[in-house]
Amino acid sequence: MLGEREARVREVTLLEIHGVPYADLTVESDDGVVASGRLGRESIPVDLVVGEQVLVQAAMNVMLAVRRP
C-alpha cells in the first residue's frame, strides 16, 4: 500500500490558507491514471513546473510527497 510511481505534472496551483502554504497538484502516470491532491509546499520541489517528470510517493492511493527522479 506504500509506494512510489513515476508521473508527469499536469497542474500545479500554489495557495495559502490562513497563512499556511499549500500546493494543489494534479499528476498523470504513464499508464494514464490521473491523481490530484493538496500537499504542503514542503512536500514538493520549490520550482516544480507543469510537464515535469516526478516520482510520487503515496500510501493507499493518497499522495504524500513529490520529488524529482
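(the above was protein one; protein two follows)
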Amino acid sequence: MANLTIAVDEQVLRRARIKALEQGTSVNAVLRSFLEQYVREADARKRAVREILALSRTSRAARGNRRWTRDELHDRAGK
C-alpha cells in the first residue's frame, strides 16, 4: 500500500481527528474510504456513458422529420 502526504489546515485536521475518533475510525481510514468511493463513482460514470453511447448506436429510434426551434427546445415559445 502506498503512502500519501497532504497539506491540511491544522484546525480542519483537528476537527477531522475528533470526528473520526467519535466514529471509531481514523482520518486515514476516512480518507482511504473517500478515495475508493471517488474512484468507483468515476468508473461507474464512465461505464454509464459507454453503455448509453452503445445503446444510441444500436437504437432503431428516429426523430422523423420534426424540427425544433431554439425557443421550443428551451421551452421559451410564447413567453
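Reviewer note on protein two: The CA atoms of residues 14 and 60 lie 57 Å apart.
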